Amino acid sequence: MKKITIILSVLIAMTIKANAQIPNSGFETWVDYVDSGDCNTPHLVYQTPDMWKGSLGKNCLVYSYSIQKNNESYPAGTGQFSMKIQPDTADGVRGVASTVHKNSSMANGIPPSFAINYKPTSLYLYYKCSSFGGDTIMCMVYFYKNKVVIGSGVFGTTATVPAWTPLEIPIIYTTLDVPDSATVFFMTGVYIQHSTVSTLYVDNLSFAGFVSSVPEKISENTIFNLYPNPVSATTQLTIEASSLTKECILIISNINGQELIKQKIEDAKTKIDINNLAKGIYFVKLIADKTVEVRKVIIE
Questions:
Q1: How many angstroms from the chain centroid is the CA of residue 159?
Q2: Half-sphere exposure of 92 (CA within 13 A, CB side)
Q3: What is the C-alpha separation between 241 and 243, in angstroms, rounded?
């Protein structure tokens, strides 16, 4: 048991180091953000994730800010908070949040905001959202070299996604250069600005893969094994018998976070029929008690 605990501690430390390039990527640290408007009254003070910035209202007498602290973290066991992004159109607040945490102008586009010295292939995160009237909710990441954009990853959806869902956003580069900086930017209510319904929750951003929860029961085994991978028609899902519970649920989602297959797992070895899925990358999530594990599978 001691050996296993040490291994887990090292893995957690490696994960923290790998995710360190994105500032406050789990939204666990929050700081005061003062509305320094021209009102002749005490300035309003908001809570914002450290190293992140949102949108303030036009009226400095009205408490209104696009970012809110959400007292929930996903996956379970990875923290206490996540970030909620929501517009307040009555006071001119756009539903935005970004790592552009300084008072820099966005008049000429989204500027770089944090340093990086390699080329990530994807941005990974967990999200859930609600979209008003088919409006678009956006998740974006930009990479720069000498303040010029050389790579980006963009995801947009008009769907309502009520449950926390893994999302991988592939990054495409236009040059062979290694970026020196990057910026992450979220936006709700992109096209429809007369509602506060379009809402986005995000947590545990990473360039190194999906952040996983630490199982409550320390074990040398993972929750499940998935093979073959890549796969052409069907895949065999093998679950250790000790992981099976009455609440063992399997979910397969595409890279846009849409749940395509969801079923209860009752046998230690279960064959999942994927004949109706097109070629591409998918995410297989298994929920067993309070433990969640996500794997990527490729259908060829």
A1: 16
A2: 6
A3: 5
Tell me the C-alpha distance between 228 and 201, whole Å.
Answer: 33
Q: Which two tokens stand for residue 203?
A: 């947590």
Residue 148 CB partners (closer than 8 Å, separation 6+): none
Return d(Cα 17, Cα 27) in angstroms, integer. Answer: 16
Q: Domains plus CATH for the chain?
A: 2-206 (2.60.120.260), 224-299 (2.60.40.10)
Amino acid letter at 132?
F
pTM assigned to the model: 0.66
| Cα distance between residue 36 and residue 60, in whole Å | 8
d(Cα 99, Cα 53) in Å, to the nearest integer? Answer: 6
C-alpha dist (Å) from residue 27 to 36, 96, 214:
23, 15, 18
Enumerate the β-bridge partners of residue 151. 143, 173
Burial string for 79-115 (b: 16+ CB within 10 Å, else e) reads bebbbbbbbbbebebbbbbbbbbeeeeeeeebbbbee
Tell me the per-residue pLDDT of 185-240, one tens digit each, with 9 for 90 and over: 999 875 555 556 789 999 999 998 888 754 433 334 566 777 787 887 666 666 66
What's residue 30's pLDDT?
92
Q: Residue 18 in 3-state DSSP? A: helix
Token pair 């007369």 is at which residue? Answer: 194
List the structure tokens of 294.
Answer: 């996500």
Question: Which run of H or of E encompasses 13?
Answer: helix 2-18
Contact 218, 152 (CB under 8 A): no
Q: Could you identify the residue written with the tokens 């007498």? A: 61
Mean pLDDT of the chain: 78
The predicted-structure confidence for 57-114, as pLDDT tens digits, reads as follows 777 777 788 899 999 999 887 888 999 998 876 666 788 899 986 544 443 468 899 9
* Residue (of 72, 71, 26, 73) closest to 50 by Cα position: 26
Residue 196 near residue 157, CB atoms below 8 Å: no
